[in-house]
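re: ur question from earlier - yeah i can do the single chain one, its not a big deal. heres the input i used so u can compare w yours
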Amino acid sequence: MKTLIKALDIAAFFVFAILFAVCVLAVMGVSALLGKRRFKPGMPVNRFSFAICDLISNKYDGMFEDLFLDDYINEDHYIYFDYANGHDRFEILNERVFFHSLAAHPDNAIYKAGFCRVSMLLVELKALGIAFGTIWRSNITFVKSHDPHLLGLNALIMARLFRLPYVLHLNSDFDMKYKGLGKTSSPIFFSRGLERFFERIIMRAANLIMADRNLYRNSPYFPFSCTGKYRAFGVRVAERHYAAVSSRKDRRKELGIEGKKALFYVGRLHPVKYPEDAIRAMALVKKAVSNAVLVMAGDGPMKEELKTTANFMGLGDSVLFLGSRNNDELTDLFYTADVLLAPHGGVTLLEAALASTPIVAYDFDWHPEFIENGKMGYIVPFRDIDELARKAIAILTNESLRNDMRAYCRRYAESRYPRRYSIENEKKIYDELIGIL
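and the output i got, formated as tokens:
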């Protein structure tokens, strides 16, 4: 019976998907004949985004300032595919931020019966229906997506239907991600080759491509023909992290680690972030620095597995799992740390540098773009846990070196990554996007 349902599910999916594609292409063709919509100066800028982040569950300090860009954006509309909840959610976050969270695996009879692909297609149709109604009613200025896969396809469809500009906001090097996880970023693709082919189509169709860093433009997966429309606006973190170091608090006492050397890991406890490498490095550090502890801030599906690994390696109380922490707590935790271990650090590198915390990171992602090796910490070969530990030990056991790195980290972060620079650059990208039409 299950085999029959699976076969029917696949067949129905392809039939409806083909009909859907034909209808969309026909409407997009008619829309293209009408020409591109012109933006009139003085009109409010309203953005519509297909998002990768759940803003309902992941609000942060200064979020609305980031979203509105000093009121450059008048209204912000989002659609998010939620793989963690079985029910749709909608929330008006700030009178001007409208967030639709759609259950990717809905708790309904169709999905439960085993028609997973048909259910996915129905969710997709619902998303496009909501997007169509929103853009129709809200006088949207431009459409944005946060990846070049299903979100990118949806954004491109809406942009073409309504003759609007489309900007792609890149958040990952997908070749690098595939190398680390061994699977495609989007579940709709069967191979990395097919996924890469699709990415190139979406990138070439976008009016502009933006990112907070230069990394993705230099990746082999990025089409050379698109480099001219790539814009890096600069990494931006919450305003709280720019507060003076003197305003922060050393939290060793309340964490129960007074007199200890503190290594810090912050991020999702997910395979893509390699948190297990921090624990394995900690086991080596402990042999050379007996009073070292590893503080881990973050949550995710690997939490219990990581606890088991720590216990198996005999680390016991030497690894503290703090769970998710807000920006106010994190600013103090970064300051408390003697070293940040960053297997895949993302923007936490900037947050650590602003707290004057030396960093030991893999030669991976944007780490070499940010870290001045030997001055702010060290870059070590990817997945070389022994070297990760050795460089952490070098910083922990040399107070003079650690103090020099602390001072340099803060100066570098303030001078090279000011928050205002990032905000103004993002506004310029949208000005260009609107202006090119």
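Residues 89 and 396 are 47 Å apart (CA to CA). not sure if urs matches, ping me
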